[in-house]
């Protein structure tokens, strides 16, 4: 399935590095989301964008910086992360009105 | 109080069995519901949407009881490939989906 794609699929970075995660959706949706999933824990909502505007920031530390240049693309810029930030980062998209969310395959991030 | 309550399991069943999961939700304003399945270390995938009293898709049947605020998922003729975590997700207009821990199903031969 290629409805929602994420790159890279795996990322190892040091605590002083700066990296970016990319998400692209080909479903014509207008809402995009970032979730974090740590091992054996439920998904945690991080950010919500509707029509390129951020509508929700779930008390996410500033070392995570989202960017949504258009309705099809979503980025998560990472800097000075901590080892506890190691997790699976999932992007999702939906039509604002239907709310059925479709997920990308995720980026498995390891912070060393 | 949690938004949804699901028995985490695991539910261990043999191939061919029928298994049912229940999910209770706390917010009566929830308008629709989704069942997602998530395989280990993979992304959640939408299994079924429920907008009225229920929905059926092949071996999968979801039933909604708004008066008692619970929704169930029935899986008939279980396959090995059904082994996964099943997530019940209520939806309220204007809010993002909130996911719980789900129910783990293990189907064995």
Question: In a nutshell, what does this entry contain?
Answer:
Chain A is 0% helix and 57% strand.
Give a written overview of the molecule.
The complex is a heterodimer of chains A (112) and B (109). Chain A has 112 residues and is mainly β. Chain A is built from no helices and 11 strands. In chain A, a hairpin with a 6-residue loop joins β4 and β5. The mean pLDDT of chain A is 94. The interface between A and B is medium-sized, with 19 and 17 residues.
Overall radius of gyration of chain A: 13 Å
Global morphology of chain A = globular
- Give the topology string of chain A: H per helix, E per strand: EEEEEEEEEEE
Q: Widest sheet of chain B: strand order?
A: 1-3-8-7-6
Q: How much beta of chain A, percentage-wise? A: over 45%
Count the helices of chain B. How many? Answer: 0
How are the SSEs ordered, and which strands pair?
The complex is a heterodimer of chains A (112) and B (109).
Chain A: E1 4-7, E2 10-13, E3 18-25, E4 31-37, E5 44-50, E6 53-57, E7 64-70, E8 73-79, E9 87-94, E10 102-103, E11 107-111
Parallel strand pairs in A: 2-11
Antiparallel strand pairs in A: 1-3, 3-8, 4-5, 4-9, 5-6, 7-8, 9-10, 9-11
Chain B: E1 4-6, E2 11-14, E3 19-25, E4 32-38, E5 44-50, E6 54-57, E7 60-65, E8 70-75, E9 84-91, E10 103-108
Parallel strand pairs in B: 2-10
Antiparallel strand pairs in B: 1-3, 3-8, 4-5, 4-9, 6-7, 7-8, 9-10
